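Morning - fe (ii) ion inputs below, output right after.
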Amino acid sequence: MAFTLAHLSDPHLPLPVPRWRELAGKRALGYLNWTRNRHRTQRREVLDALVADMQAHRPDHVAVTGDLINMALPAEFVPAREWLETLGASSKVSVVPGNHDAYVRATRNHGTENWRDYHSGDSTGIGDAAFPFVRRRGPVTLIGVSSAVPTPPLMATGWLGQAQRDALDHVLAQLSTEPGFRVLLIHHPLRSAARHKRLTDADALLTLLRRHGVELVLHGHDHVHSTMWFDGPRGKIPAIGVPSASAVAHGHIPAAAYNLFSIERDGEQWRCEQTVRGFGEGEEIRELRRATL
Ligand SMILES: [Fe+2]
Ligand SMILES: [Fe+2]
């Protein structure tokens, strides 16, 4: 029986009304953006409908690739945890944070504190630290890294940092001797056209992937459908991005969607089928695309 991994990202849960003193610095711009635009284009009812459709497909595991919230206000973290609990128990849902979850320095660790069990490793000796974590579920090995760092206003870059990359190097070296289907979870895409939104140490991460390989990379951040291919030690590695799980289509930004990956062993190879489901032109959620990776 194939293992089904669901992937959704960037829910940007509705923002509670902030206190005025919380709107200093970067948050002032973020709040302006929310009141002018985002509250219209990120909708809770869209997210709830998408999650209901995903749950109807009974995935074995759910990966959430960050930006659960918006401005990392203290009042945003507990509702985000409650939303995670509606997705499933922490053993069945894996989370990596996005830049909006670590929006400002003051609350950069609140996500780790409130959502810890959703990104804790299996305590098997490798990947036990917060990031990178390693979780084995059926034939799948999930490796989660955090690219979430506070940035100056108008910047949305990500960064893994030397210590996390060194730990990832070690983890991937160990996992390359195991039979699991390795899935790397990261918020930022591995290549970005926009300098202010890029993963600044992407080249170093790509070097690790070329050396050790994984079978699949899942990310969010850009709020668009995306498939990119990167070099691995034995052929190309697909990296898949997905629109925001709460998005109403606007401009070049597509409506909310999520991925289902059906993963199974096929002799010496892996077989991985991607199904994209979401809102097309209409109000209904439907299958948008199917691909063999
Ligand atoms: Fe986002
Ligand atoms: Fe993001």
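Note: The chain has one domain: 3-292.

O.
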